[in-house]
């Protein structure tokens, strides 16, 4: 079943590249550009702001709209919802910034924000009956739907959540209910990454926090080092060093273990460290 899902995902990526080349006459490298999408399919772009605010969120949303339009799937709808939410949050903040010279820019951003909310509502309603695990998690986490939660947990029992992202989604449920299981899920998320992965740094931060609460300061320090190295977090290590010194633990050896963990992840062969 998992092999079939991987095959389908590979096929979808291949089809997307093929569609991109045929529809948009993409550049010689085969890269689909934002300009090409908006020139060929302006309907994917015209209801979004065109000033300097939220450029990254706008780009991601347009490209995901393109993918979902040409390769419609529940997973693509889920990613479109996520990109819509990111854009909506950004444009909401931008709408609160009054443009000194062009007052209409502020009101236009507010219209864009309202449009984004309407699109989120439309897509949420459209996907409410889906059994896709990503969407089950979405409707539980956003709408507190117990029926979606129960189906999501059933998907866990059916081994349908075997991706790092979905393991993290499970952690959001178990973190306040079962710390040990949450740690196992986070470790398993790392086991699921392929070689040379782009690891979600939230995994490192969550592991550091959970081990800290267990007073396992060696493990907490280990994962804090990786969280800091990811660049996504400004981690305060001094307090942990004090605890390590009190326990007569060598933080330099833990640093070596952290480097070994990174090497394992690059090879796609992670095993949880023991201290």
Can you describe this structure?
Helix content is 70%, strand content 0%. It folds into two domains: 2-126, no CATH class; 179-267. The protein has 275 residues and is mainly alpha-helical. The radius of gyration is 22 Å and the shape is globular. It has helices spanning 2-24, 34-40, 55-70, 74-95, 103-126, 133-143, 146-157, 164-174, 179-191, 201-213, 217-230, 238-246, 251-267. Residues 20-29 have low confidence and may be disordered. The chain is built from 13 helices and no strands.
Helices, strands, pairings?
Blueprint: H1 2-24, H2 34-40, H3 55-70, H4 74-95, H5 103-126, H6 133-143, H7 146-157, H8 164-174, H9 179-191, H10 201-213, H11 217-230, H12 238-246, H13 251-267
Helix pairs in contact: 3-4, 4-5, 6-7, 8-9, 9-10, 10-11, 11-12, 11-13
Structural category is mainly alpha
What is the number of helical segments per DSSP (H or I, 4+ residues)? 13
Mean pLDDT: 89
What Rg do the Cα atoms give?
22 Å
The coarse silhouette is: globular
Uncertain residue ranges: 20-29
Approximate strand percentage: under 5%
Number of domains: 2
Q: What's the SSE pattern?
A: HHHHHHHHHHHHH
Q: Major β-sheet, in short? A: none
Distance between the termini: 36 Å
Q: Approximately how much helix is present in the residues? A: 55-70%
Count of extended strands? 0
